[in-house]
């Protein structure tokens, strides 16, 4: 069996983001052959995994540290201007939630719009909804977002088809999540939809995610 092609994931960190939002990317790492072999998954299943490369994209540039919540930081590897993260170069663009009080800059908005036009798979978590909405890529799309921001989002972005009754939602190449921990529900849903069944079952079982209903109980 031929080795699976590497999945290149760009994580957009152009502002201080939630550390817990970022953590959802680890589910994709768990779906790699390397991780599954470390924890003893049988080779017929491990060989179906997809190796990943995670790229950290921020305005400050490579080797600079982007602060995130919980008094932590992440070493950036690229800026939005680097050719390696241009549309067509990434398989997934993951957008964790930034500070909702800060407006995104034009360079960031253009970067998101360009990837949307190329139909790069986008995984947007929590207040990342504000970046998606400000960029205009949410207009006319079926998306969700954090319930705590429902009044603000509906008022400021009336052209978006918001659904705050669900933890995660897919509309074509655009995958969106509600509040912080819904990022795990989102990535679990993405893995179940796009990875071999045996790999998806391993990841969701190992991480104990993806079992709660996508619809909120109340």
How many structural domains can be distinguished in the coordinates?
1
Which segments are poorly predicted (pLDDT under 50) over 5 or more consecutive residues?
Answer: none
What would CATH call the class?
Alpha Beta
In terms of structural class, how would the helical and strand content be classed? alpha/beta
Q: Quick one: overall form?
A: globular
Helix and strand pattern? EHHHHEEEEHEHEHEEEHH
Summarize this structure briefly.
With about 220 residues, the protein is α/β, with parallel strands linked by helices.
How does this model look, in words?
- The protein is α/β, with parallel strands linked by helices.
- The protein has one domain (7-207): Rossmann fold (3-Layer(aba) Sandwich), CATH 3.40.50.
- Helices cover 32% and strands 18% of the residues.
- The protein is built from 9 helices and 10 strands.
- It has helices at 19-22, 26-30, 33-38, 43-46, 106-117, 128-135, 150-156, 182-194, 197-207; strands spanning 7-12, 52-57, 65-68, 72-75, 92-95, 121-124, 142-143, 161-162, 168-171, 174-177.
- It has a 6-stranded mixed beta sheet, with helices on both faces. Strands 3-4 form a two-stranded antiparallel ribbon. A two-stranded parallel ribbon has the order 7-8.
- Helix 5 packs across helix 6 (128-135).
- The model has no long low-confidence stretch (mean pLDDT 95).
- InterPro entries: Class_I_gatase-like, DJ-1/PfpI, INH-QAR.
- Pfam families: DJ-1_PfpI.
- This is DJ-1/PfpI domain-containing protein.
- It comes from Talaromyces rugulosus.
- Residues 53-191 form the DJ-1/PfpI domain.
